[in-house]
Amino acid sequence: MPYAPCLKVQKRLGEKAILLVNRLGLIDKRFKVQRVDDYILIPLITEPEKKSLEEFNEELKSFEISKFDFAFVEKIPKSLADILERTLPPHLLASLPKSVDVIGDIAVVEIAPELEAQRKMIGEAILVLHKNVRTVLGKSSAIGGPYRVREFEVVAGVGKTETTHCEHNCVYRLDVAKVYFSPRLSYEHERVAAQVKNGEIVLDMFAGVGPFSILIAKKHKVKVYSIDINPDAAHYLKQNIVLNKVQTRVVVMQGDARKLVEKDFSGIFDRVIMNLPVEAISYVDVACRALKPDGGVIHYYEFAAEPNPLDKARERFSEAVIRAGREIKEILTMRVVKPAAPFEWLVAVDALIR
Question: For the domain 180-353, what is the CATH code?
């Protein structure tokens, strides 16, 4: 432990002295303030000059300037840069991932090409930063295909892709390599669920493993029909309705939403959720057909580019509703959910349809 200059005051003056030293810019934050018997020792970055000593005299009256063998403050890392700042050069620190998606005990991260040689180092740093994470997966493809999945590469940890994720007091079993799930939509799940009323019949057209359906069913006395074309998503959704004890309120169907609605579910729903941003526009006619004859609410999601992404999404959605033979009575909410790509956003439109 290094010796450093310090301000020594009686314990009763400790808080006042710390505030004063902070105001004067003299406190050395690398070291811990120490208590020795009835005294407080405050580490200083340098021996105080005459002007500072005069302020000490005026405000504290009784004090002593000495040196003490201080202990370093233990720095708790809050970012990847905190962990790797002594290992990576500045130009590579600037390329570190700014965010990590944590799904259960799995972290999903996008690592820039210039950091390819440091992938394992970054993965190990993520394990340090997120104590509950056991596997770090690097994105190696975009989300694509009818099942909305992407490819991953194991960067660090035990190398599994199946996990259990908790959100809003719900539990979701899933395999990130087989199904679509985004923890960044947590607020959307809660926001939409809060709008549902008891007694409604709800259609979740692209349900995935159930984050909209199950939360709605836990919060309200409703019936939710949950569709997904991905058989793995339907498999986990069935598990999750049991885990969350909503078997009597959620009906799981695996298949294409268009075919299922046209065959069995036209004109029966109070509310339709359309969380399939890439293709939702081509299913607006199906959602309109699913609503009751006197109308209902559609929660529509799409990717919209700058400028004015909200206006673009509303216009496209409105035109699609009109083509489907319905009209928008009221736009209830429009919001930018999250960035999707440079100059492109995921946008949500909640609309009352008649």
Answer: 3.40.50.150
